[in-house]
Specification:
Number of strands: 0
Structural class: mainly alpha
Radius of gyration: 17 Å
Number of helices: 12
Number of domains: 1
Shape: globular
Helix content: over 70%
Largest sheet: none
Order of helices and strands: HHHHHHHHHHHH
């Protein structure tokens, strides 16, 4: 089974390398639906997996100056407390396996559908954000700091419970909040923010006993070369093909979890 986990890590890593998103969105559903891993264990393991893989991406973006550390700080100001609070709620509820599975799969399905919609509507949201007039522009410009912290809090709760949301969903919201910022800097900022969020959430899951370290090692063994290969091939595949394909896949997976 270990080689299958490694191969799966390679496939997901390749998709992440090609598209820049899809780590938690694909890995957690794959572990649950294909390998039958308990949802809580899949989420906890994937969170530490994400923290380790995105650490390298964050370092690379930082070297190229494509990280807005002020925005990272504002996002973390909302996401880290939300992650800790979500972990405390999970521990306090002390749910049995069946109810815990229902909670996680429910949040997971919502997070996947939201991520799919964010990918599909990305161009429209960017156009809306760049309009020089409108109520949304006024609200954003006058409450940008609060909106960024609130975005971090929502992502923190979603990611802690489902491991999904720190990628595509975070990027699309940041593109809306900061339409004048270059896309590369938005992506770098989102990746840098994902590191402390997934690390805190992952360590919290480890404390709850929902991390499989053998599984984690097998996934990393495949994902690192997969990300490297995908990042080199991704430039040859147009976004107009990648975005709707990935969005459709995530939508189907999200709807599938409704019937788990």
């Amino acid at each position: 089974m270990d080689w299958l986990y490694t191969f799966s890590g390679f496939l997901v890593g390749f998709v992440v390398g090609v598209t820049g998103v899809g780590g938690g969105s694909l890995m957690t559903p794959l572990l649950v639906l294909v390998f039958g891993v308990a949802p809580a264990t899949a989420v906890g393991t994937d969170l530490l997996y994400a923290a380790l893989t995105k650490l390298g991406g964050s370092w690379a973006h930082s070297r190229h100056g494509t990280v807005d550390w002020r925005v990272v700080g504002l996002l973390a100001l909302g996401s880290v407390p939300a992650a800790l609070l979500s972990l405390l709620v999970l521990k306090g509820l002390a749910l049995d396996a069946r109810h815990l599975q229902a909670l996680i799969t429910g949040v997971l399905s919502v997070a996947l559908v939201l991520t799919a919609l964010a990918l599909l509507l990305k161009p429209q949201l960017q156009q809306l954000a760049r309009r020089p007039d409108g109520v949304l522009r006024e609200l954003r410009d006058h409450h940008l700091t609060a909106a960024t912290i609130l975005t971090g809090a929502v992502l923190g709760a979603l990611v802690t419970i489902s491991s999904v949301g720190a990628g595509a969903l975070g990027v699309v919201v940041l593109l809306f909040l900061y339409p004048r910022t270059a896309t590369a800097k938005i992506v770098g900022t989102d990746i840098a923010h994902a590191v402390p969020l997934t690390l805190v959430a992952g360590l919290g899951h480890a404390a709850l006993g929902t991390v499989d370290y053998g599984l984690l090692g097998s996934l990393l063994l495949g994902s690192l070369p997969g990300i490297y290969l995908g990042s080199h091939l991704g430039v040859k595949i147009p976004e107009r093909v990648l975005r709707p394909t990935l969005a459709t896949m995530l939508m189907m997976i999200g709807l599938r979890f409704v019937f788990v």
